Amino acid sequence: MRVALVAICMLFISVAQAQLNTAVDYNTVAARYGETITAEGLSRQLHIIAGPAMEGRETATPGQAKAAAYIISQFQAAGLKPGANGKWEQFYPLYSDSLRQSTITVQNKTFLYGHDFLADLRSGQSQNINATHVIYADRGIVSGDYDDYGTLDVKGQVVMIRDVMKKGLANDKGTLQDKIRIAGEKGAAAILVISPSAGRFSALNQQKLRTTGLYWEKDTIHKPNTYFITPTLAAAIMGINHSESLLEDLEKGKKIPATVKTPVHILFDKIATVLHPSNVLAYLEGTDKKEEVVFITAHYDHLGKNGDKIFYGADDDGSGTSAVIEIAAAFARAKKEGHGPRRSMVFMTVSGEEKGLLGSAYYTDHPIYPLANTVTDLNIDMIGRIDPAHEKDTNYLYIIGDNKLSSELRPINEKANNTYTGLKLDYKYNDPNDPEAFYYRSDHYMFAQHNIPIIFYFNGTHADYHEPTDTVDKISYALLAKRARLVFYTAWDIANREHKLIVDRHEK
To answer: Any idea what DSSP says for residue 90?
Structure first.
């Protein structure tokens, strides 16, 4: 009996020792590769990514394409595989419209875009209209038995309506957009809206009025161009000498003929350009759980140039991009030496973040790996600097979003930090009432919208945020390395654990 008891005790001791050894080995192996993420390596990467040759990496510019090519070269050198269906880049369409010329000529007087009228450059189509007359439909209301158009046939005609000066009037039915839509449905070739706000057009930035910037959802539904015109322009069309009180007079019931027999020439000439920036994806295949995928992301675009000034974006987000490259190399090194992750890894650097999370939005709308199999996105956006709140306590990192969708993710990240990196994890910006709303402002949010647990690693903003002075000489490389290693160790745990992260919360 005593011999049996001793044997059982020895067995328990043996199992416990084996478990301890396994844990020690696991931590030792993880640390072996995590420690290859060094300040020197990150500095080498960042000096190139945020160097002058990349010209600020603005999306859809040669600088962004140069940065993509460099990132690919580093993924290739690490031995990773192309992650976009056999290619390194997932290209996506972006559009940019610019105005060449736009005028409205009434008899012999020419009115100018940006001063006398405005149009929606993004939805407007190039057109050149010579109209012998204009149809005036007052407020453009069609509601129940009330119809400002009456028996008017406006198909192919230029229609003019007025916006009301006082919003919320009891007798004003429908929004201005409803009235514009109705005019379009009736077949108007162009819509002129007399706007009480038009007098402020000339104070706006005229250059910005003539370009849309980048956008990726192009509206393919044909709509007539809508021009918001000043009362002065409207008065010229109506043949009225005094325009100052035109809208007030119209609201008081001043009668205007339904057919205004004034010739009007409308010219709207724009250039529509299609651009093709890219997300860069590198892939590392897992072992027994390879169908499940762990994402590590950072955006590699920044603000580009303004004249001769380069917005280098060393912290935002050259720091995150450099970290993704070095983390990817560490995982690839582990796999070469027989310690590859159980789950597959995708290392994605995205463009378009500074334009409104366009690259990550495109990816999650056109996923290469099933979103249902995507375990997590660990997103790195600015981890190389110290914000003013931590000038006396620099060993910190903001953690955002880690408990929004999975109750398991925060404990994993905290365990990795307690075991390896010893940073002070600051959850200030994880507060749902955070006025800065950082949770919604980087690429992880596109994944969170699809119930994929995320962590956003962030050092906070500083005086050089979105300024040309965000340069490589201001980066704390030792701190950058420690923060990058935390992402590595968290990813290591998630990629190798037995069970996929649960999704048991739904705070998006």
So the answer is: E
